[in-house]
């Protein structure tokens, strides 16, 4: 082993060996971050009545929660001219909480789904990509118009709420830094099959393989020209492949290309934002933890191009997990080693039932997992009425008790430096 490689290996093991000393992400007032996904305006009764907001936030505060993860995409702000978003910030301030806002959906999905409203608001034509069937879908992430629209909206959001003191503010190296997420569910879901993006893909293949002989050998194909390569061809690019742990090489190359597009687009956006707001933490939200091989996770991985390479731009990554057992701690450690911070938000409904945390020993282990292999803890979700309903269910009392124990145990360990 040469001296340079030996130094790199020794440095990596040094970082991994110190993971037990990883520090929790802390709010500006010093509290370790404990968060929950909270939907304050999507469904009744939260949309129509302030009383459930009071009740819920009082309960969450007592559970140890101090941060709300809220869908605040452009379409949400246009609904009643910021009324519902204003209300969530008002209640967050009342209960001493802060809001980590998700400011787009699936890297271009929200602006694309509401492109007529977006065009009238920003005066840019929305650059739509297509799916494998050639149908319009998410935005072309690499396109300047998309990045301009998202940049303008994020700046508008920050200017509207930063004086209120309720945008998540973290303490980092003795500096107070605002934290925002440019996207929720990071991924380019079934996108990138439009003509222009396919041209970029062919260019990426030339750079990787050099010539068609090498590519054909890797793919088992017989292309005569790079221009023949078309990711809409399902006989080659079979995203429905039965064994998603071993996808065809053509699909792997296309998925990783799309991941590269995502990361480059978000990196460019980050650079622009930092020029205007030098003290800003950029967050990525990932629906499934890397390394989990359950079918929903694998499907999202390939269709949305969700890989560690997708979120290299992020300072903090929030994983929506299916409970403590779904977290591949080795994958977490790799992200920590490259300098990113992590937060584990355990799913509370399908795939992450309260039974996972019935024993105090399991609660202790989950709290320590979040401390040793991440920098924060939370759950998904308190009041989404879709796939993870908790509020109003028969399980609510047990849920509150169980997660209160988990969060208070985490806060206890965080305050003691990890010592029991």
Q: What report would you give on this structure?
A:
The protein is built from 14 helices and 11 strands. The protein has 420 residues and is an alpha/beta fold. Helix 13 crosses helix 14 (396-415). The radius of gyration is 22 Å and the shape is globular. 43% of the residues lie in helices and 13% in strands. The chain has helices at 3-17, 51-63, 74-78, 83-94, 109-113, 115-122, 144-161, 195-209, 212-219, 249-276, 295-304, 329-337, 360-372, 396-415; strands spanning 34-37, 67-71, 98-102, 128-130, 136-139, 169-172, 175-180, 280-286, 316-321, 341-347, 377-380. It has one domain: Glycosidases (TIM Barrel), CATH 3.20.20. The relative contact order is 0.12. A hairpin with a 2-residue loop joins strand 6 and strand 7 (175-180). Strands 3-2-1-11-10-9-8-7-6 form a 9-stranded mixed beta sheet. Strands 4-5 form a two-stranded antiparallel sheet. Residues 1-20 have low confidence and may be disordered.
Summarize the topology:
Elements (H helix, E strand, L loop, with lengths): L2 H15 L16 E4 L13 H13 L3 E5 L2 H5 L4 H12 L3 E5 L6 H5 L1 H8 L5 E3 L5 E4 L4 H18 L7 E4 L2 E6 L14 H15 L2 H8 L29 H28 L3 E7 L8 H10 L11 E6 L7 H9 L3 E7 L12 H13 L4 E4 L15 H20 L5
Parallel strand pairs: 1-2, 1-11, 2-3, 7-8, 8-9, 9-10, 10-11
Antiparallel strand pairs: 4-5, 6-7
Helix pairs in contact: 2-14, 7-10, 13-14
Briefly say what this structure is.
The chain is α/β, with parallel strands linked by helices and 420 residues long. The chain has 14 helices and 11 strands.
């Amino acid at each position: 082993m040469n001296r340079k490689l030996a130094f790199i290996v020794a440095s990596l093991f040094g970082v991994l060996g110190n993971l037990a000393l990883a520090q929790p992400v802390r709010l500006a007032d010093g509290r370790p971050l404990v968060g929950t996904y909270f939907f304050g305006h999507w469904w009744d009764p939260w949309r129509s009545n302030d009383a459930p907001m009071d009740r819920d936030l009082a309960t969450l505060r007592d559970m140890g929660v101090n941060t709300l993860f809220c869908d605040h995409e452009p379409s949400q702000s246009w609904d009643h001219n910021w009324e519902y978003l204003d209300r969530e910030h008002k209640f967050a301030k009342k209960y001493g909480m802060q809001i980590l806002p998700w400011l787009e959906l699936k890297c271009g999905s929200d602006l694309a789904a509401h492109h007529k409203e977006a065009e009238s608001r920003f005066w840019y034509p929305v650059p739509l990509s297509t799916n494998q069937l050639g149908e319009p879908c998410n935005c072309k992430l690499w396109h300047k118009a998309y990045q301009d629209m998202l940049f303008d909206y994020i700046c508008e959001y920050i200017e509207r709420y930063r004086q209120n003191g309720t945008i998540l503010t973290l303490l980092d190296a003795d500096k107070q830094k605002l934290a925002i997420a440019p996207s929720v569910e990071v991924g380019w879901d079934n996108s990138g099959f439009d003509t222009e993006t396919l041209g970029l893909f062919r260019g990426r293949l030339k750079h990787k393989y050099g010539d068609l002989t090498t590519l054909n050998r890797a793919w088992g194909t017989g292309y005569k020209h790079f221009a023949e390569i078309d990711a809409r061809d399902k006989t080659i690019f079979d995203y429905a492949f039965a064994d998603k742990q071993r996808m065809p090489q053509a699909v792997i190359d296309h998925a990783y290309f799309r991941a590269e597009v995502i990361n480059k687009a978000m990196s460019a956006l980050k650079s622009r934002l930092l020029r205007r707001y030098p003290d800003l933490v950029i967050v990525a939200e990932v629906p499934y933890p890397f390394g989990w091989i359950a079918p929903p996770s694998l499907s999202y991985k390939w269709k949305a191009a969700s890989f560690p390479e997708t979120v290299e731009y992020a300072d903090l990554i929030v994983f929506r997990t299916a409970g403590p057992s779904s977290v591949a701690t080795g994958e977490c450690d790799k992200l920590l080693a490259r300098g990113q911070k992590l937060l584990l938000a355990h799913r509370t409904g399908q795939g992450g039932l309260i039974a996972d945390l019935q024993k105090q020993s399991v609660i202790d282990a989950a709290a320590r997992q979040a401390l040793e292999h991440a920098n924060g803890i939370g759950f998904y979700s308190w009041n989404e009425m879709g796939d993870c309903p908790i509020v109003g269910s028969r399980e609510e009392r047990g849920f509150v008790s169980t997660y209160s124990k988990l969060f208070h145990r985490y806060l206890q360990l965080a305050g003691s430096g990890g010592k029991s």
